[in-house]
Amino acid sequence: MPTLSTPEPTRHSHSTVRARRLAYLIWERPDLQRAEAFLTAFGLQVVERTPTTLYLRGTAAAPYCYVVRQAPKARFVGFALELSSRGDLERVAKSVPGAGPIEALDGPCGGEVVRLTDPSGFRVEAVHGQRRYAAIPHRAPLTQFNTADASPRVDDTQRVPVGVPAVVKLGHVVLELADFQATCGWYTRHFGFIPSDVQVLPDGSPVVTFMRLNLGDTPADHHTLALAQGLVAGYSHSAFELVDADAVGMGQRILREKGYRHAWGLGRHILGSQIFDYWQDPWGDKHEHYSDGDVFTAAVPPGCRAVSREAMAQWGPPLPRDFTRPKLGIGMLVALLRNLRRSPDLSLRKAVQLARLFG
User: Fold this and answer.
1) What residues are paired with 296 via a beta bridge?
2) Which 8-state DSSP code applies to residue 294?
3) Between β-strands 303-306 and 194-200, what pairing exists: parallel, antiparallel or unpaired?
4) Integer angstrom CA distances of residue 280 from 59, 166, 289
5) Residue 295 Cα distances to 64, 221, 289, 300, angstroms
6) I need a labelling partner for 81 at 20 to 30 A (CA). Which of 74, 119, 145, 195 fits?
7) Helix (H, G, I), strand (E, B), or coil: what is residue 276?
8) What is the per-residue pLDDT for 321?
9) Where are the extended beta strands (E) located within the chain?
10) 313 phi and psi angles, rounded to 5 deg
């Protein structure tokens, strides 16, 4: 079992609030039609479409989980966290440094919002009071499986409908950042996130933390937010839950037939245990289908594991070299040099270690 050479991101016993749900992602895209074509092929459903904004949802009884706004350049902006009460919203507005005022939330479901920026520059919208839509029916998960030891399915076949599998919910988002410790601490201190697993380099320094919501005795997904030490701040991927593994496989078939670019999968993760499949949208940003993920109550302590390419999956194809490789450019190199000078979490030695592991 690896040991930590520096303090890992840890839970706060008295966080400002406890977020209850990852509400939605926020994107900017130059072409809403192309965005909609990919996202509906991926399994999301349009809630509302305006000349400048697109709102999409899954089948779960919740408002939209994906917002796309018209903009000259493609960009991941940030995400929203749903709070339990207006009192929580007031506490965030009053107590979190740099928080904006409570405002009416634009969009089809109303509600109120406090806008913030985390230490790595991502927008975080704390929201409360959105109207919920009813759940949309989707096919039931397959439960009758014949094995080498038992055959409960007799005189019957196993078939799933051919077509776009429905996304049930937005599961998690993964971000890369230079200011690793400060950003992890911001989420645990202000929104009550709990580390589920921390991954470390050979010298024991933490470089990835998988964090779940603190829902007390109610089980929460192994991670709703994962943060990774990177060279610059950037979006890694987001993940969307499907009803079962056959839906994940059907998603691969449909997206491949429609000509979208596959990124990695099928496989089963180690941390979180999800059966996964990754795809790139028209702008190269990765979106994951998954099923069968772990859930933990708040009582489970964090694990500590070595970070490596092999630690990404129990089975499946090898992690592609370009999956974690940053997009090089003048802007990225300038940001890297700036981060090497100012970030306490990033050194040239650590950058070289990360490049050797995942470059």
Assistant:
1) 220
2) -
3) parallel
4) 22, 18, 11
5) 23, 4, 17, 10
6) 74
7) strand
8) 83
9) 21-29, 45-49, 53-57, 66-70, 75-82, 103-104, 112-117, 123-128, 169-177, 194-200, 206-212, 220-221, 225-229, 234-241, 261-268, 275-280, 286-291, 295-296, 303-306
10) -150, 145
Judge contact between 128 and 156, C-beta under 8 A. no
Pairing state of beta strands 234-241 and 169-177?
Answer: antiparallel
Instruction: State the Cα–Cα distance between residues 289 and 218, nearest whole angstrom.
Output: 24
Q: Are 303 and 212 in contact (CB under 8 A)?
A: no
Listing DSSP states for 168-221 in one string gives -EEEEEEEEES-HHHHHHHHHHHH--EEEEEEE-TTS-EEEEEEE---TTS-EE
Here the tokens at position 15 are: 């966080």
The pLDDT score that the predictor gives to residue 148 is 95
pTM, 2 dp: 0.94
The structural domains of the chain, ordered by start, are: 21-133+164-358 (3.10.180.10)
| CA–CA gap between residue 194 and residue 176 (Å, rounded) | 18
Which amino acid, 324? T
Look up residue 92 and give its two tokens: 């965030």
Q: Other CB atoms closer than 10 Å to residue 234's CB: what's the count?
A: 20
CB proximity list for 241: less than 8 A, separation 6 or greater: 58, 167, 168, 169, 170, 171, 290, 291, 293
Q: Per the structure block, which two tokens stand in for 178? A: 């230079």
Beta bridge partners of 194: 212
Cβ atoms of residues 193 and 214 within 8 Å = yes
